[in-house]
Amino acid sequence: MSSEISVLDSLAAVAAEEWNALAGNNPLLSHGYLEALESTRCASPRTGWAPQHIVLFRNGTLQAAMPLYAKNHSRGEYVFDHAWADAYARYGMQYFPKLVCAVPFTPVPGPRLLAHDTQDRLALISAAKQLVQSQRCSSLHVLFPDEDDRAALEQAGLMLRANVQFHWQNRGYRDMDAFVAALTQSRRKRLRQDRRKLAEAGIEYRWLTGRQIDTETLRFLYFCYVQTYLEHGNRPYLNLDFFERIHDRMADALVIILALRHGKPIAAALNIRHGERLYGRYWGSTEFVPGLHFEVCYLQGIEYAITHGIQVFEGGAQGEHKLARGMLPVQTWSAHWVDDPVFGPAIADFLERETPFVREYIEQLHAHSPYRQVPAAETTSRAPTVKRAGARD
After folding, report:
1. According to its UniProt record, what is one Pfam family this protein matches (predicted)?
2. Which of 20, 179, 209, 387 has minimal CB crowding within 10 Å?
3. What are the φ/ψ torsions at residue 144 (nearest 5 degrees)?
4. 350-369, pLDDT tens digit by residue?
């Protein structure tokens, strides 16, 4: 069979149905989501995310693909390699540009090498390595790959790097009270106090999805999102046009949690649903209310997951404070190939020494679990039956 590998500077050059056939039903890897990032110029050469997607066609049919970007900075990745860039600079070498395989601005683990078998995954990796050399990039980075991709990446000689995120697991809780009851006494007390104070402050909540999300709500969400970035002294990565396009293209995957006081919205959080998983993405508020951030970003997401039979709520990158809200540490990965005979081995040595510390850190976090030790039946005896939706991550 005739095979051809190409590099595309725009996802618009690929038919959406062919790309989505490889991405499955994963909204964050869908053609609509990734192309919206490009067409709204959120992921573009202007912002330092120049698309360089690798596609493999066989007999004219798309068989494999790799969402890939040439980058001249490390922002929006959530896997931190600033020390590596600094080391290059100290020796008068250029770390940028580099090639990054990722969903821009999205620290969600999942498929990165969109292929049906290991052979095609390895072909994508080989093409990416050749692109590093032909474009004189320093390195290749694959962020948050799933298990199948990770095995292929390691087989192809990439170095694996461990990291930590905090995810909530549904243990079959019949309602929010059952979840709270599973926590330790001190965590239960604090959580109930915080929620009571918010209720006494007149805060109520609404969950909106699909076409329940109107233009006014979407614009309020965006205002909150921008406010959060500005409060931290950063420019937002995304624009309103992007939010409007993904709402138009994948509204049923969006879950917006609104906080209202006396009927007026004062905070919002955007989550994205994929089968049995809910991903917490962005949040913001128009006024400060103690405890509101934790309630809107985490506890309301957990309550939504329990109500709708969702099995995992991913709280995003970093944040030990999530432990107190019932999220436990999980190990995530990235993969790296550094095309330099000196820095490559040096980084490999660094990663070999770093990984045990990450594992030890996870063990220490588990030692401070917010959950009391109870028989499994106490939280799973009334577990709802949830039909699997074919999630790939």
Report:
1. FemAB_like
2. 387
3. 60, 50
4. 999 999 999 999 999 999 99
For the chain, give every domain's residue range.
3-157, 167-330+372-380
Question: What CA–CA distance (Å, rounded) separates 155 from 360?
Answer: 26
Is the pTM of the predicted complex or chain greater than 0.90?
Answer: yes
Buried b (16+ CB within 10 A) or exposed e, 51-81: bbbbbbbeeeebbbbbbbbbbeebebbbbeb
- In angstroms, the CA 147 to CA 112 distance is 10
Which residue ranges of the chain lie beneath pLDDT 50? 374-393
Class of domain 3-157: alpha beta
Q: Which residues, other chains included, contact 126 with Cβ-Cβ below 8 Å and sequence gap of 6+?
A: 156
DSSP per-residue codes, 69-135: EEESS-TT-SS--HHHHHHHHHTT----SEEEES-TT----B--SEESSHHHHHHHHHHHHHHHHHT
DSSP label of 203: E
For 383, half-sphere exposure in the C-beta direction (CA atoms, 13 angstrom radius) is 15
Neighbours of 229 (CB within 10 A): 15
The amino acid occupying position 343 is: F
- pLDDT tens by residue, 36-81: 999 999 999 999 999 999 999 999 999 999 999 999 999 999 999 9
Q: Which residues are CB-neighbours of 288 under 8 A, at least 6 positions away?
A: none
Amino acid found at 214:
D
Q: What is the pLDDT of residue 316?
A: 79
How far is Cα of residue 5 from the mean position of the Cα atoms in its chain? Answer: 28
